[in-house]
Amino acid sequence: MGGYMIEDDWENSSPITLVLVGRTGNGKSATGNSIVGSKKFESKRSCSGVTTTSKLKTTVLADGRVVNVIDTPGLFDSSIDFEFIGKEIVSCIDLARDGIHAVLVVFSVCNRFSEEEKSAISSLLTLFGRKIYDYIIVVFTGGDELEEEGKTLEDFLCGCQETLKETLRLCGNRYLLFDNKTKDETKRAIQVQNLLSIVNNVALNNGGRPYTNEMYTEFKKCKRESEEDEQDKQFKRIFEMVYGMQDSVTCF
Fold first, then answer.
1. Which terminus of the chain has a lower count of CB atoms within 10 Å, N or C?
2. Mean pLDDT (whole number) for 14-40
3. How far apart are CA 61 and CA 56, in angstroms?
4. What is the pTM of this model?
């Protein structure tokens, strides 16, 4: 079925591009399906993950706006090597031709927040630069589980470990809860509306500018220059140390 009717301040002519990242089993692909309003991403219970490469799916909202959703492999999995993650990040940015309006980091209320996930959040800083934190929104899945227990997301967060609270603070405390199993179309639409409302705030806070390939390229350039500068400093220190030792020997 088609997209939902969403009301906010976005221009109808401006596509919205969202990127999903998270650990296998957290409901990343199911969240993508909830956003686009149909089962466009393969989603099933699997310990190895069903998304093997970054994929883009598009939906048109009832008001005519275009939403692009990019689903990525389980980049937060401990079994994934850093080189593969780097290649997928580049692929992801290539897919997001108009830039990334928000990075949706998917956690599950059913799974304990792991050290791997904490490290993965930090790795986003390494891969994208600190600016990427301004675009992160945390999506918690498992809304149906909390509902069955008679709990709210705030109840869950009150009892969660400090490392998760710290991660949320790093991401500007932008988070919301998704129930990807609900058959209630009104509830599904409200979830998406709440998400896009936060995306709209992210855009406003960033001056309406998405995270672009140019920003990524500039960050990589600055990082490379910084590393080269540090190497030069190290060579200089070694050079001075060696020649200092030679001068000491000459004095004898």
1. C
2. 90
3. 16
4. 0.80
